[in-house]
Design a protein that fits this description.
The structure holds three protein chains of three kinds.
Chain A (H helix, E strand, L loop, with lengths): L1 E12 L2 E12 L3 E5 L6 H8 L7 E6 L12 E4 L11 H11 L5 H10 L13 H13 L5 E5 L7 H16 L3 E5 L3 H7 L2 E6 L2 E7 H7 L1 E6 L16 E7 L2 E6 L3 H9 L5 E6 L2 H9 L1 H5 L4
Parallel strand pairs in A: 3-7, 3-8, 5-6, 6-7
Antiparallel strand pairs in A: 1-2, 1-4, 8-9, 10-12, 10-13, 11-12
Helix pairs in contact in A: 3-4
Chain B lengths: L14 H15 L11 H8 L3 H13 L3 E4 L3 E4 L4 H26 L4 H15 L6
Antiparallel strand pairs in B: 1-2
Helix pairs in contact in B: 1-3, 1-4, 2-3
Chain C lengths: L2 H35 L4 H6 L4 H15 L2 E2 H19 L2 H5 L3 H4 L6 H33 L6 E2 L4 H23 L6 H17 L7 H11 L4 H5 L9 H4 L6 H23 L5
Parallel strand pairs in C: 1-2
Helix pairs in contact in C: 1-3, 1-4, 1-7, 4-7, 4-8, 7-13, 8-13
Classes of the chains: A alpha/beta, B mainly alpha, C mainly alpha.
């Protein structure tokens, strides 16, 4: 069963489309990484899913049902910016969580507080941004949620705590929880997630299992004796994402069937052809396009 | 203690394939004995910091390839029945994929099949002097 | 009860309670000092009439010694305290609008969250109303004036009106600030100026009948209009009201507006986009 399902989600602000007909589903127990340049609509998608902002159109479901108040009994959300109360202590936030959630697990919470080296007596306003994120994460995981929606859960955290976050996601997933998390750090998605959705300008441009994408998405690179070779017929090829030509080198960003594409390239009599395996970062950059790189994707 | 595997998540090779290769290699080399227990999916996922479904998938494929067997509640073990054939299969699989990679590399450099065959014979002569007919 | 709001209310109540306590101590001191200064006969009071300060003593003392203290007056003052407290608590939903990402993902229906906030605020307002009454009674007891308290005919209605006006103001401010994305405190402060001006605008006869008519209508949602001219004029509430409503009718209207305002607030707040 799909733990999260988003169908034809659209969110319009005035004339701008923040989310444009986005559809994807996440199977129960799966971890889905949400990638995309800034302003791609990642946060908006998550916030629409949780009903924090109203969708313009589309159908949303968590656990196969429309989202109502009871849904949140087992759903945890960590927003990208601090939504906690600066004037309250960590202990007081814990009390709020204890009173709000039936599944609140005191022992688990104590473990998490210790894991992030937090002092419950401190006021949230006195904490660093990373520590505030840590508090939000500790509270989120303390209810042993079945569905986790994490918007940049490791922003502001040092590398050690970033690893803790990955461990928490992996641990939750191995206990059957479903996770949707966004990150600017592709390496984290590559490790913790089995699924990835890449967004750009409000649309999903890549959606799939990471291992499958790595099997399918390749670069076919060919070097020709001269720069007089024709690639026009590759432009409309459904297997090919993007054609890149620099001098005598041709690079085809292939969606699937790399070997067949390589054979087609060989008919053009190149000097050499090779198929290059792609990491998620290459797939991301290939899909988002070179223009996004200059816009500063980190 | 079962051996600790290592994967490179950044690589273009799917993690589950890397894991399958690693387990098979360990079986072929004997670092994993027949009947020996593998770490649980959760333990290995946390140990390698990779997604548990990916580890589970590798285990499923290894089970399908008859390299390991999983009994519910007890865990996953290297197959003990007819262990020589398990090891042999593992050796064949790992070797075949290594050779396939090498051929792919040669081909990408523009070598044709007869050229690669000549190269292969040269390599065999180097590693098995006198045995090559 | 909502825990977050409980923490806020507890903090504000302790500040208000301190203020009331300070006023009470000051009042006790004044009352005791006045009675000491006039331990002599009535004639001796007349002797010191030349001095302005003693004049005041004289008036206050003779008032305290001769006049009864109506309970309505005490409840009315407690009502004033409740109004101040209520307007401070009235932007509680507005205060959450920066952190809705945290509030709206709780497994509780949003209108229920809103009603819990209102209930918590209500407890705080009632607590301060009660605390003020207790402080008044204790102060009078310490000053040996407890016996002067008389239960006047309208006392309880005045109390109910004072408290009702506090909740009415609260309800109106909640409804207005619930969806506001800026600081609700600004609107709260503005409401004091606006309502005071509106309550006295009826006296600006030079503005013409049309304007006065408008003022008259607007005053029906003006908490101060309901509560003003109670203490000064004592007796005939209806005749002295800018609204032309009797005491009981006013009590009914203010509580109705309080309920309607709070309900509107809960229903608009749940639709705020985080």
């Amino acid at each position: 069963m799909n733990a999260i399902s988003i169908a034809n989600l659209t969110k319009r602000y005035g004339t701008t489309l923040a989310v444009d007909d986005v559809s994807f589903e996440i199977a129960e127990g799966s971890v889905c990484g949400l990638l995309g340049p800034n302003g791609a609509g990642k946060s908006t998608t998550m916030r629409c899913l949780l009903g924090l902002i109203r969708r313009t159109s589309g159908q949303l479901a968590i656990g196969g049902k429309p989202i109502v108040a009871e849904t949140f009994e087992s759903v945890a959300y960590v927003p990208d910016s601090n939504a906690l109360y600066c004037w309250m202590t960590i202990a007081q936030h814990i009390e709020v969580t204890r009173r709000s959630y039936r599944n609140f697990d005191r022992l688990r919470l104590n473990e998490l507080i210790a894991m992030f080296a937090l002092d419950p007596r401190k006021k949230v306003g006195a904490l660093s941004k990373g520590q505030q994120t840590a508090v939000a994460l500790a509270l989120a995981f303390s209810i042993n949620p079945r569905v986790l929606v994490l918007d940049e859960p490791s922003s502001g955290l040092d590398p050690i705590f970033q690893r803790v976050v990955l461990d928490l996601i992996i641990d939750a997933s191995s206990n059957g929880a479903t996770v949707l998390f966004s990150s600017h750090q592709i390496g984290q998605v590559e490790r913790a997630a089995d699924r990835v959705v890449i967004m750009r300008s409000g649309k999903t441009i890549v959606d799939g299992e990471i291992d499958r994408l790595k099997s399918d998405e390749k670069i076919v690179e060919a070097i020709f004796p001269s720069d007089a070779f024709s690639t026009a017929h590759f432009d409309a090829d459904a297997r090919i994402r993007r054609v890149e030509r620099t001098g005598r080198t041709l690079r085809l960003f292939v969606r699937s069937d790399a070997e067949a594409v390589a054979r087609d390239v060989e008919t053009l009599a190149p000097r050499a052809v090779q198929i290059v395996d792609l990491g998620l970062e290459d797939i991301f950059l290939g899909a988002v396009g070179a223009d996004a790189i200059t816009q500063g994707v980190s | 203690m079962p051996p600790i595997f290592s994967v490179d998540p950044r690589s273009g090779i799917p993690i589950y394939l890397q894991l399958i290769e690693q387990v098979k290699r360990a079986v072929a080399l004997g670092t994993l004995d027949s009947g020996e227990q593998l770490p649980t999916v959760k333990a290995l996922a946390l140990d390698l910091t990779v997604n548990p479904n990916t580890v589970a998938r590798a285990y499923r494929e290894l089970e399908r390839d008859r390299v390991i067997e999983t009994s519910p509640g007890r865990g996953s073990f290297v197959r003990a029945d007819g262990s020589p054939s398990v090891v042999k299969r593992a050796v064949t699989d790992v070797a075949a994929s290594a050779l396939s990679d090498a051929v792919r590399e040669c081909r990408s450099l523009g070598c044709d099949a007869p050229a690669i065959r000549t190269l292969l014979e040269g390599a065999l002569e180097r590693w098995f002097p006198g045995e090559n007919s | 009860m909502e825990y977050v709001e409980f923490l806020r209310v507890r903090r504000m109540c302790s500040i208000f309670a301190s203020c009331v306590a300070v006023i009470a101590i000051f009042a006790i001191a004044t009352m005791i000092y006045s009675s000491i200064g006039t331990t002599g006969t009535g004639e001796s009071v007349g002797v010191t009439i030349g001095d302005a300060t003693d004049m005041k003593h004289h008036k206050l003392t003779s008032y305290l010694q001769t006049q009864s203290i109506p309970l309505g007056l005490l409840l009315g003052f407690a009502g004033y305290v409740a109004i101040v407290v209520a307007t401070v608590f009235a932007s509680s939903l507005n205060k959450e609008n920066d952190g809705l990402d945290y509030v709206f993902v709780k497994p509780i229906r949003r209108e229920i969250i809103a009603m819990r906030y209102a209930a918590t605020d209500a407890v705080g307002i009632l607590a301060m109303f009660a605390f003020t009454i207790v402080a008044e009674l204790v102060s009078l007891a310490i000053a040996h004036l407890f016996g002067r308290i008389v239960i006047d005919a309208h006392a309880f209605w005045v109390g109910a009106l004072g408290l009702g006006v506090a909740f009415m103001w609260y309800g109106i401010l909640q409804a207005v600030t619930a969806t506001y994305r800026g600081r609700g405190g600004t609107i709260v402060a503005f409401s004091w100026g606006f309502f005071i001006l509106l309550a006295s605008a009826g006296y600006f006869t030079f503005l013409g009948p049309l304007f006065l008519g408008l003022v008259h209508v607007l005053n029906f949602v003006n908490p101060i209009a309901y509560f003003s001219q109670l203490i000064d004029h004592g007796g005939d509430y209806k005749a002295n009201s800018v609204l032309g409503l009797g005491l009981e009718a006013r009590v009914l209207v203010v509580w109705a507006i309080a309920l309607v305002g709070t309900t509107i607030a809960a229903n608009v707040w749940k639709r705020v986009e985080a």
